[in-house]
Amino acid sequence: xxxxxxxxxxxxxxxxxxxxxxxxxxxxxxxxxxxxxxxxxxxxxxxxxxxxxxxxxxxxxxxxxxxxxxxxxxxxxxxxxxxxxxxxxxxxxxxxxxxxxxxxxxxxxxxxxxxxxxxxxxxxxxxxxxxxxxxxxxxxxxxxxxxxxxxxxxxxxxxxxxxxxxxxxxxxxxxxxxxxxxxxxxxxxxxxxxxxxxxxxxxxxxxxxxxxxxxxxxxxxxxxxxxxxxxxxxxxxxxxxxxxxxxxxxxxxxxxxxxxxxxxxxxxxxxxxxxxxxxxxxxxxxxxxxxxxxxxxxxxxxxxxxxxxxxxxxxxxxxxxxxxxxxxxxxxxxxxxxxxxxxxxxxxxxxxxxxxxxxxxxxxxxxxxxxxxxxxxxxxxxxxxxxxxxxxxxxxxxxxxxxxxxxxx
Length: 409
What we know:
Largest sheet: 3 strands, antiparallel
Shape: globular
Number of domains: 4
Strand order of the largest sheet: 1-3-2
Number of strands: 6
Order of helices and strands: HHHHHEHEEHHHEHHHEEHHHHHHHHH
Radius of gyration: 24 Å
Oligomer: single chain
Strand content: 5-15%
């Protein structure tokens, strides 16, 4: 695979984008410089001071760098598609490939590997020791609990927590917030004010609009421990797992065969979809349908599973309700009428699916373009040209990811 150099990557940015990137990474670039000078200065900074600019990254980015460094230069790591990219991926410093709809491929170039490898573990330890990542998790937690909140209110909550936890010296917190991209990256400004929002929010205007319709203006208060729990595990956050409803949800998913990362992802997806239950939301129950042991469920077991998911969805703080729950307010409750019986076709046996012809397989990295000449087709690499959310070609009426795609991917 042909790698781009850091200089080439930086040269692809506009002048203002270079200044923004330099600001995030701790290198103040003068607006008076020509673009070529900005590129040269930022390139020199990235090569000469890796420990400094990595300390300006969020925890998720540093952990991603460590994972890629430990794997080795140009070694592809296969990851799930997160709800939002890391900063390193967004700006192209870390290489990625999304051409395969089933995997997000990520790797580190030899050039960047040589720069960060000697320092990345030290930066990670420093972020844990000096409280930078603790502040970040609590900040992300407040964002996840509210969805979107005025910046001034957000900073006040962090300062209240920091003063109680570490004393009246707020200069350290101010320094951490200035260094961290937490506020810089997740800020939203409009004519109504200055806000920070959860990185998982994809439609700020919709949240404001529905809040206005529901007359939701007052924010519910949460303690820092609740915020910390809601902000850990980026990018796969899950809010409310330590509540009775959350613990029942986790027990349910474990009984249905989820474990490891698959369990984390199922819980995260359920929390995220619970934010959108002002209308019927089929995706809220997708982890049930996709669970390894779902085909073994009978109607009564399925109904109980749906009750647990619904109870959890109604118990979590909702963005539309400024952190209140559907159970508290009676608003935005999960609509589960369509899910009180097992979906059709019968999920107990894959033999009940209509038959259809497999499209020509795609060519995956490292395998011959002529599969007949290769003599075999590796398991899992015969992927039909159908997007996960498209109707299944078999004609069942289900989305591909819930029908034949569930068994072929």
